[in-house]
Amino acid sequence: MVLTDTGYWLALANPRDKYHHAALEVSKTIDSGLVITWPVITETCHLLGTRVSRLAPVKFLNQVEQLTDLYTLSVENISRIKFLMEKYRDLPMDLADATLVIAAEELGEGYILSTDRRDFKTYRWKNHKPFKNLLFPDD
Fold it and tell me: Is 123 helix (H, G, I), strand (E, B) or coil?
């Protein structure tokens, strides 16, 4: 399983994005399932609608429906989200990123697609395991 962050979806949808080519190329090589969280969906829809077009969120949701598994959070995850946002406040960590860390911890997978190099190089799942960002394999 590969977690997906907002930046990946924005790059994929926007040919003018500096990571568009990398997102397209890595998408061709992924042979495992993609995972997304509701906060990532919300953030992506908002940004696609303001940066790409009003129709872009609908196209994105079609991709989500066809290509991804939805990792569902529970109310029990809120305390961990608060802990992570406090721990990484200097970056700062947003809600979407915190949910991806939780998904990695609960799924036992640290593969991610994100244009956010700095943050996902810093974040640790299960407090010590680094993420492997497939958009930047040499990092």
Answer: coil
- pLDDT, tens digit, 9 for 90 and up, residues 53-71: 999 999 999 999 999 999 9
Q: What is the pLDDT of residue 138?
A: 83
The pTM (predicted TM-score) of the whole model is 0.95
C-alpha closest to that of 40 among 101, 126, 129: 101
CA distance 49 to 25: 24
Alpha carbon 112 to chain centroid distance?
A: 7
User: Is the pLDDT assigned to residue 32 strictly greater than 80?
Assistant: yes
Q: How far apart are CA 74 and CA 82, in angstroms?
A: 13
**2-133 has which fold?**
Rossmann fold (3.40.50)
Degrees to nearest 5, angle at CA 109 with 57 and 100: 40
For residues 69 and 35, the answer to whether their CB atoms sit within 8 Å is yes
The alpha helices in 5-90, defined as continuous H runs, are: 6-13, 20-29, 38-51, 56-67, 78-87
